[in-house]
Amino acid sequence: MIICAIESSCDDTSIAFVKNGNKILSNITSSQIEKHADFFGVVPEIASREHLTTIDKVYSIALKEANISESAIDAIAVTSYPGLIGSLIIGVNFAKGLSFKINKPLISVNHLLGHIYSAFFDNDISFPLISLLISGGHTTIIKMNSLFDYQIIGKTLDDSCGEAFDKIAKFFELGYPGGPIIDKLAKYGNPKAYEFPLPLRNMKKYNLNFSFSGFKTAVMYHRKKYQNESFTNIDFNSEDSKFLQNMINHNKYLIKNKKLDEDENIFDIAASFQNQVAKILTLKVKESFNRNDIKNFIIAGGSSANTEIRSQLNNLAKQLNLNLYMPNLKLCMDNAAMIGGIAYHYALNNKFSKLDLAPYSRIKKLKRGSGI
Ligand code: KG4
Ligand code: ZN
Question: Which pTM value belongs to this model?
């Protein structure tokens, strides 16, 4: 079964052709990063306009690369929730048009399940499992008995994990998206320079829920409170890369503009912040496994590409003897292949949609313990 999948929930226009849920024939993504970079975040109106102008082109390229004709398509899958409503509308309407044109059924896909499915491409994963989904829009711990029988057992009460990376990067004028830049900066910093708080770490009181907005405020405005005595003394001259030189100059700019104190550097801040994010995620995941007799573990979503998060969760998996599955780095970010992959299982379960399918921006029931 060949599925044409469409993903347009945020700022990537992506179309993929996937065979039998595991063979990616093509996966073409047009990123809008440059269009949003000046704003240090996604501007919804710009995002939907960009989807509209690029979606036809992305479809043609993906079809050509898959080396198939339209008549070979068995079904059309589309992310219909959650996401930016203006962006979802473009993808859903494109999918409906295609479904009508080639007279093939439509499959409405939950974006979050798509992210989780991205780990299935390279791995043989069995249920039950626990997945940690960390993206720009969500931070959720989901217990799954099958692809379609699941429960949210923890979630963020405010910002998402990726959003915290993005907002800190915005404050320090580092660029967008923040995650990859902070990840790179952290390589050169001291993760113990600051000991930022671990929000909601009391499991009895807060269970498996997260909060990232207090974290972000601590990093942006209250660093003095969490400073440790020694900062890294990096020999910046030893590395002559363009990135380091740019960041050293940027550091001087931040000091001049009073966003950093004289004795601070952005490398230490990045490393300390990232370390604490990884730590709180790891603590909550550990508790999830303590509360459930499960051995399979998936991490997915944009922030699952993070070096320190991967490393700390990997160590936890070793300690608890878990089978840890992570998507290939290329499939961590939004992409249509993950939508086409899981859509195959929607089709096997006869979960098709009608042409009156409507996108919606939120998960219907977002109460803890409810389905998604
Ligand atoms: O899954 P995704 O592509 O889109 C959403 O569904 O939101 O995730 C995007 C998010 C952004 O917030 C970005 O900063 C974050 O993933 N991200 C990272 C890294 N790479 C991307 N966060 C931390 N470390 C990274 N290396
Ligand atoms: Zn996503």
Answer: 0.91
